[in-house]
Every structure is written in structure tokens, then in C-alpha cells.
Specification:
By secondary structure, the chain is of the alpha/beta class. The chain folds into three domains: about 110 residues, no CATH class; about 375 residues, Glycogen Phosphorylase B (Rossmann fold), CATH 3.40.50.2000; about 240 residues, Glycogen Phosphorylase B (Rossmann fold, 3-Layer(aba) Sandwich), CATH 3.40.50. The chain is built from 35 helices and 24 strands. Strands 7-10-11-4-1-12-13-17-18 form a nine-stranded mixed β-sheet, sandwiched between helices. It has a six-stranded parallel β-sheet with strand order 21-20-19-22-23-24, with helices on both faces. The protein has a three-stranded antiparallel β-sheet with strand order 14-16-15. Helix 7 packs across helix 35, helix 11 crosses helix 13 and helix 23 packs across helix 34. The longest helix is centred in the N-terminal third of the chain and has 30 residues. It is globular and about 90 Å long. The two termini are about 20 Å apart. The structure holds N-[ethoxy(oxo)acetyl]-beta-D-glucopyranosylamine. N-[ethoxy(oxo)acetyl]-beta-D-glucopyranosylamine binds next to helix 7. The site of N-[ethoxy(oxo)acetyl]-beta-D-glucopyranosylamine has 18 residues, from helix 7.
Length: about 850
């Protein structure tokens, strides 16, 4: 092995082996070491921030040692590995998670059963700090927008927990998703400079540098050959611009496992080449411009969720990341000196949506142009290696790149795409000889005045498996957006893997109170249920046990008060006058990206309806107690970011805040109803918000939400759901039982007809909605100078694409049922809550990753 220490020197190394801390004493020593050396601070100058950094560095030392051992183990066994390519990893905070997953064992056998978190908590306390305050110092690693990015974060956790040899590959954005401020009710975006203080969770591998090229032209040695033969000869890409990708590694510890996997994020930097021509002409400033441009590639995350903008810099990001990652993967493969045909036996690559699809083309280019494999052999390797996950059926989210832009940035890759397309269309023609329409429909190139490359088609053609993320969604992609491909490839290629979430973060970390109640009840001291969630079914037998119901309820009330504290801290508004009455107030929560299809507008219209009814009753002289008989106390919480350029979503935020203003300042409604917009929703806030819900809303237009994952998080924390028959709500209902969820609304199979009716027939709004919409225009109570007219018009006059008017009455009906059960039959409510948690096990991402490993990647765990 290159760079190995010579044998005669090794006993010195072995004698001085670095050990993990496994006792409080050893942790404290490590902590002080870091304060005095790494941070160059001292006993006289150590605040919470320094304590956070010293704790993190100490914990990271342990993780790094296990990371090294994991990599040595995997190198020695040389198993097939999987690489998860995702442009987003919405990790949130790392320290608490690392403490929960901390493995205090040496390298052999079963991981230790000592509670690492307790040990560090004691150490931190001994040293003069409170762990709680120390944890608060950490900024979120917010390198993602929403569902897709958070899914990737749950996945890497489960891969490590299951001892799978898997790495994640992504980008190290200097600015993650923007921080959201609410000013005058409007969203204002401010930059998230999360690397402000040094980041203890990354290991900069300055020695791992990969050059990445852009622009330029293609040169072909034999200019006499016929056009058709193009694919048979390698070509040379003479690039015009070069930058360097530097690796930054984040260790990913598994829970109760010896495995620490790696998440490798690439940062861009300039090459050391320098434009001396410009410099000599005296133009020092401009000679640096290109250097600076290199750094901008990984400067910022594109802040769109379920929407593609088609910007050149975004394509550059994608190629930069695909090229660096593939180079790294191939370097590792080459170490074992196997022939190329064994590549798919050693490597699986999962495409998290179409963003990494360029890696399909890049691998084909490397095999043909640089390794000189014949086209067919190369393509066989490529398609056996890749698989693709689709996360949305929304048209505006499907990636397309203009041929002209693409060809300028990546001229050789464009040629390869044409060739892939040519061979593919030939095969389609052969299989369906008389269907020329089909051939043009499935072409990777969309014809028109501006020709476009359809990335999803390329991803399907370049993969051996394509999956959706919940049963309904996986069926929908086969019958709608990828219908032709389902016909061409048959049923084996298109499969379903229903999403999951990690119970370590979303139960143990977010809700330690509920976790302890569960482990105490199940007599599960080691929290084994976090690995085997089928154990939770044993909770069912306590669903009618009065004493247990009380304990269960106490946890929920405690979490609700914690949320109240957070909201009061963030907004300065007092939400409840009497904390001891929190038990009577229903917490109704909708937190997710703001999007018309997710229908926050329907939720806020429901709030307006409630307000109007309450005011009517009060106006008729009814007492507060009489009102509460029908509209019991409730707080509606909203949270979520809108894409900066998404006008309608921003208007929805403004409407929510306008409604909140009116309602919260109306003294007559005190203790009956409040509406709150929680600013800057992110992972660490979700950890406080989600455990506090009595009810959460998952009310997308049927057929639009591919899966949803927060629905699973709320259920895992004993919250009940109100939802449409959409995404994973369908399987949640199947698992927890239809009595334990409030479903309403039209089904996805009716959506097309309903939309048709809105456009071509006369449809009328329900009276309730009419009344609500009237209150949002002109100088009505929520009119605000007619500001919300576009939201009203989109429903009344523009076809109501998201079918708010079709679902509104049934939504109100479901809400009425919620009120009744919550207030008149609390034990029934608690029973539903317990039975939900008892049956949530299926939605662990451990199950999900096992399915990927067995049905798509064909990989096995590597255990000690
Ligand atoms: C999301 C889907 O909207 C959500 O339903 C799903 O649970 C999640 O992916 C994980 O599968 N999609 C995105 O976040 C997204 O941006 C477009 O999709 C690429």
C-alpha cells in the first residue's frame, strides 16, 4: 500500500495509539485539550460557544477513529458499495445526534451499552456548563430545501445504523437555505452564513482535489469517418475552464453500531493556474476574476422546492459534483484492480431525483473516451450501476436543459446524450415498429423552437430501477408522466420504495420525554425499539389503561408548553394566558414548504371560517362558554419557507400573517382561537414543533404530494393527522387504522375530471368558501387593500387548479369531527394517539434502506 508506515516504525505507532474517550474523566480531559489547543482559549475565557466547539471536537475525535476503522474494514472486505448522490442533505444539527449514536466500545464485537449522551452531559456539567445551552450554540446544516433533502439525511443515518457500506456525495454550499424573517407579514430572505464559526463536523481533506472541466470543444482524431460511426471512436474534450473540487467529509455515526460512514461534500476552488498574460498587461484585478468565479460554483444552494429554474450556474453545480464524485468512486474501484465488467458488482449509484443524472453521461464518457471500452459494453456497465428515485409528478419540477446552453457548457456530453438517445430510439422502434408517435414522445430531446433535454427520461434510460416514494406515487408515475416508459420496459423496472424517517432524530432526540415513557413501558433499557420498531406494537395493550393515558397526555402537554416557549421567544407575542389550561387547547400544526399544492391556503381559509362563525355567535349574544361548546379552544400554527420568486406562495404567507394579526388582537377571541406563523421553519425548530402537535395537516390536492415525510414524524410523536388520500397518508392509514386518522376530500382518480369541470363547465363555490373569500377582498376584514385578490381569483375565476373549492366542505367536516373528539372524548383521542405510535414502525427509514439495499443495490451490511 502506498504511504504505509514502514514495518520497523510501526510499534511506535501502535504503542501510541489514539484511543476514544469512554469515561467521563477521559472526555473532560479531551474537552480541556481542545479548549486550550484547538481553540486557543482557556479556563478564563470559555463561553457556551467554546464549550460547544470543544464538546463537538471531542466527540468528533471518537467518530473519526471509528470512521477510519470502518473504512479499513470495508477496504479489507471489498464489498459492493452504494453511493447516494444528492444535491441536498438537510442535516440539521449534528452534536445531539452524535451523542445519541455515540459508540463507546473499542473496535471489537457488540457496541457498548453505556449511554454516551449521559456521559457527556455529566462531563459538560462538571466543567461548568449545561448541555442544553451548549447544544443551542450549533447552527443547522441547512443544505437542503425540504422533503428531498431531509430524506437524504434520514437515509445516511439508517445506512450507518444498518452497517451498510454506503457514502453520500453532495455539495458543500457556503450558504444553505436562506433564513426567513417576517417583516410586516411578508417573508424576507436573509443569507444563511452557516460556516461563520469553524465547523467542527467537517474534516477538510485538502489533499483530495479533483480537477473538473467546463466549456471548450470536442476534437476527433479521424476526421474521415462517417457521422454514423461517431460512437465507435473515442473523442477528446478540450476543455475551456478548469476548477478544483476539494473534499470535505462529515462522519455519519450509526446507532448502536460500530459503523461510521462518510458524507463527502465538495467545495470548489480555483486551480493554481493563473492568467499571466493578463497579469503582465498590468491587469492584476481581472486576472483574479476567474479565480473568484470558481469559488462561486458551490457558494449557494438554489432555494426552490419542487421547482426548476434552469440556470447555467445550477447546471455547473451539477456537473462539478457529478464529475468529482465519479472520479472519486472510480479511484476507489481501481484500487482492487478488477476488470471494468465487474464495476456494477462493486458499485451501485442512487440518483436522488434527476439532479445527478449527468453522472450517467459522465461514466459513459469516461468508459468510452478515456478507458476506450466499446460503446455497448460501456453502456451495459452504466445501466447496471445506476438507479433513479423520482420525488414528484409536478410538471414545473421536472428538469429540462436547453440544448444550446448545455452544448456550450458540456459539448462532449451533449454528443453522448444524442448517441444514447439514438440507440434508445432504435430499440423502441424495433419493439414497436409502427408507433412513430411513441418514438417522438420518449425522445430525450424535446423538439420545439428551443430544444430541451429531458433529464428524467435520460435518468430512466440510464438506470436499471426507477422508484417512486409511496405506493400511490409509484403507481401514478407509471400511469402519467412515465407511462410510455412503463410500456417499453415492463413492470420490473418501475418499483415502489415507501419513504421513511429516522426514529433516532425524530423520536429519541426530538422527544426524550416520550422516548423514556416508551422504554420504561416496554422495559427496554437499551432503547432497542429504536432499531426494531415492531416492538412498539406492545403499546397497544395500554391504550385503555387510565394511568398510562395520563402519563401519555402529560408528555404531550409538556411538549406543547415547550412550543409555546419557543413561539413566545421568536415572536414576542404571548399565546396563552394560563399555562395550566394548555390541556384544553388543541394544537393544530401545518409546517412544510409553502406551496399551492400543499394548500396552506385551504387551512387559512378554514381558520377564517372559524373566526367568522365565532364572531357571528358572539354577535348573537352567545357567551364564551357557549361558543366553546362548538368551537373549543385552538391554536393554528403555520410554518415554512416560500421560494423567493414564488409570488403566490409569498402571498399565502402574507395572508396567514394578516389573519393572525386580526384574530390575535381581537380580545373577544382570547382563549378561544389564535393563529400563529412561526418564522424560519427549519430542522432544529421542527424538533420542537412536531412533538407538540395534537393534530397536523397533510392536505395536498390528491395525487400531488409524492409521499410527505413529516406526516410520519407527527405520527411517531403521537400527533393525529388530518389529511387527504395522498402520498404516504394512504399507507399510514393502512398501518395505524382508518379510525385513527381524519381523512377527507376527493380522490386522485377524480382530479382530472374536477379540473375539467372547472375549466369547461359552470361550477359553483360552496357557500362557506364564498363567505370566506368575500372577507379577503376589497375593504373586508382581511381585505388589506385587495392585496389577496390573486389568491381569491385563482379559485373563483382561474380554474381552481388545486381544487380548494371541491374539498373545502369536506375539510370543514373533518375539522368538526376533530373538535368533537378532542374535547368530548379525550380518552378516545389518547387511544388513537397511542395506537398510532404503536403501529408507526413501518415508517422507520431503517426498513426503507433495507428495501433499497435488497431490491435495488444488492449490497450487504459489513459488520465487525
Ligand atoms: C419531495 C416530495 O414533494 C415529498 O412528497 C417527498 O416526501 C419528498 O420529496 C421525499 O421523497 N420532493 C422534493 O422535495 C422536491 O424538491 C423535486 O422534488 C425534485
Amino acid at each position: 500500500i502506498d504511504n504505509a508506515i514502514p514495518l520497523q516504525a510501526r510499534n511506535i505507532w501502535n504503542k501510541n495509539k489514539v484511543e476514544k474517550f469512554t469515561t467521563v474523566d477521559a472526555f473532560e480531559k479531551r474537552f480541556i485539550d481542545h479548549v486550550e489547543t484547538t481553540l486557543a482559549r482557556s479556563i478564563y475565557n470559555c463561553d457556551d460557544l467554546a464549550a460547544y466547539q470543544a464538546t463537538s471536537n471531542s466527540v468528533r475525535d471518537n467518530l473519526t477513529l471509528d470512521l477510519n476503522k470502518t473504512q479499513q474494514r470495508q477496504t479489507a472486505r471489498d464489498p459492493k458499495r452504494c453511493y447516494y448522490l444528492s444535491l441536498e442533505f438537510l442535516m440539521g444539527r449534528a452534536l445531539d445526534n452524535a451523542l445519541i449514536n455515540l459508540n463507546l466500545n473499542d473496535d471489537k464485537g457488540e457496541p457498548s451499552s453505556t449511554d454516551g449522551r449521559k456521559l457527556v452531559e455529566k462531563g459538560v456539567h462538571d466543567l461548568g456548563f449545561k448541555l442544553e445551552d451548549v447544544l443551542e450554540q450549533e447552527p443547522d446544516a441547512a443544505l437542503g430545501n425540504g422533503g428531498l433533502g431531509r430524506l437524504a439525511a434520514c437515509f445516511v443515518d439508517s445506512m450507518a445504523t444498518g452497517d451498510y457500506p454506503c457514502w453520500g456525495y453532495g455539495l458543500r454550499y457556503q450558504y444553505g437555505i436562506f433564513a426567513q424573517k417576517i417583516i410586516n407579514g411578508y417573508q424576507v430572505e436573509t443569507p444563511d452564513y452557516w460556516l461563520n464559526y469553524s465547523n467542527p463536523w467537517e474534516i477538510e481533506r485538502s489533499e483530495i482535489q479533483v480537477p473538473v472541466s467546463f466549456y471548450g470543444y470536442v476534437s476527433r482524431s479521424d476526421s474521415d469517418s462517417k457521422e454514423d460511426d461517431r460512437t465507435l471512436r473515442p473523442s477528446e474534450w478540450i476543455a475551456g475552464e478548469r476548477v478544483i473540487a476539494v473534499a470535505y467529509d462529515m462522519p455519519i455515526p450509526g446507532f448502536k453500531s460500530n459503523t461510521v460512514n462518510n458524507l463527502r461534500l465538495w467545495g470548489s476552488k480555483p486551480t493554481t493556474e493563473f492568467d499571466f498574460a493578463k497579469f503582465n498587461r498590468g491587469d492584476y484585478q481581472n486576472s483574479l476574476v476567474e479565480q473568484q468565479r470558481a469559488e462561486s460554483i458551490t457558494a449557494v444552494l438554489y432555494p426552490n422546492d419542487n421547482f426548476e429554474q434552469g440556470k447555467e450556474l445550477r447546471l455547473k453545480q451539477q456537473y462539478f459534483w457529478c464529475s468529482a464524485s465519479l472520479h472519486d468512486i472510480i479511484r476507489r474501484f481501481k484500487k482492487s484492480r478488477r476488470p471494468w465488467c465487474e464495476f456494477p458488482d462493486q458499485v451501485a449509484i442512487q440518483l436522488n431525483d434527476t439532479h445527478p443524472t449527468l453522472s450517467v453521461v459522465e461514466l459513459q464518457r469516461i468508459l468510452v473516451d478515456l478507458e476506450h471500452l466499446p460503446w455497448g459494453e460501456a453502456w451495459d456497465i452504466v445501466t447496471k450501476t445506476f438507479s433513479y428515485t423520482n420525488h414528484t409528478v409536478m410538471q414545473e419540477a421536472l428538469e429540462k436543459w436547453p440544448v444550446s446552453l448545455f452544448g456550450r457548457l458540456l459539448p462532449r456530453h451533449l454528443e453522448i446524450i444524442y448517441d444514447i438517445n439514438w440507440f434508445f430510439l432504435q430499440s423502441v422502434e424495433k419493439k414497436f415498429p409502427h408507433d412513430m408517435d411513441l418514438v417522438s414522445r420518449v425522445s430525450i430531446i424535446e423538439e420545439g423552437k428551443d430544444r430541451q433535454i429531458r433529464m428524467a427520461y435520460l435518468a430512466i434510460i440510464g438506470s436499471h430501477k426507477v422508484n417512486g416514494v409511496a405506493e400511490l406515487h409509484s403507481e401514478l408515475i407509471k400511469t402519467t408522466i412515465f407511462k410510455d416508459f412503463a410500456k417499453i420496459y415492463g413492470n420490473d423496472k418501475f418499483i415502489n420504495v415507501t419513504n421513511g424517517i429516522t426514529p433516532r432524530r425524530w423520536l429519541r432526540q426530538a422527544n426524550p420525554e416520550l422516548s423514556s415513557l416508551i422504554s420504561e413501558t416496554l422495559k427496554d433499557k437499551g432503547d432497542e425499539y429504536l432499531l426494531d420498531m415492531s416492538r412498539l406494537t406492545k403499546l397497544s395493550k395500554y391504550a385503555e389503561d387510565k394511568k398510562f393515558l395520563k402519563k401519555w397526555d402529560d408528555v404531550k402537554q409538556k411538549k406543547k408548553l415547550q412550543l409555546i416557549d419557543l413561539v413566545e421567544k421568536l415572536t414576542g407575542h404571548k399565546l396563552v394566558s394560563d399555562r395550566s389550561k394548555i390541556h384544553d387547547v388543541l394544537f393544530d400544526i401545518q409546517v412544510k414548504r409553502i406551496h399551492e399544492y400543499k394548500r396552506q391556503q385551504m387551512n387559512i381559509f378554514g381558520c377564517i371560517w372559524r373566526y367568522l362563525q365565532i364572531k357571528k355567535m358572539l354577535g348573537e349574544g352567545k357567551t364564551i362558554e357557549e361558543v366553546k361548546e362548538i368551537y373549543p379552544a385552538k391554536i393554528s400554527f403555520f410554518g415554512g419557507k416560500s421560494a423567493p420568486g414564488y409570488y403566490m406562495a409569498k402571498l399565502i404567507i402574507k395572508l396567514i400573517n394578516t389573519v393572525a394579526d386580526v384574530i390575535n388582537n381581537d380580545k373577544s377571541l382570547d382563549d378561544i382561537f389564535k393563529v400563529v406563523f412561526i418564522p424560519d421553519y427549519n430542522v432544529s425548530k421542527a424538533e420542537i414543533i412536531i412533538p407538540a402537535s395534537d393534530l397536523s395537516e397533510h392536505i395536498s390536492t390528491a395525487g400531488t404530494e409524492a409521499s410527505g415525510t413529516s406526516n410520519m414524524k407527527f405520527v411517531m410523536n403521537g400527533g393525529l393527522l388530518i389529511g387527504t388520500v395522498d402520498g404516504a397518508n394512504v399507507e399510514i392509514t393502512r398501518e395505524i387504522g382508518e379510525d385513527n386518522i381524519f381523512l377527507f376530500g376527493n380522490l386522485s382518480e377524480n382530479v382530472e375530471e374536477l379540473r375539467f369541470n372547472h375549466r369547461f363547465r359552470k361550477t359553483s363555490l360552496p357557500e362557506s368558501l364564498n363567505e370566506v373569500l368575500k372577507s379577503c377582498v376589497g375593504d373586508a376584514v382581511f381585505g388589506n387593500n385587495d392585496e389577496f385578490r390573486p389568491l381569491v381569483d385563482s379559485i373563483k375565476y382561474q380554474g381552481d387548479y388545486y381544487l380548494v373549492s371541491d374539498d373545502f366542505e369536506s375539510y370543514l367536516g373533518a375539522q368538526k369531527l376533530v373538535d368533537e373528539i378532542y374535547h368530548n372524548n379525550r380518552n378516545e383521542w389518547l387511544k388513537k394517539s397511542i395506537l398510532s405510535v404503536a403501529n408507526v414502525g413501518f415508517f422507520s427509514s431503517d426498513r426503507c434502506i433495507q428495501e433499497y439495499a435488497e431490491t435495488i443495490w444488492n449490497i450487504e451490511p459489513v459488520k465487525v
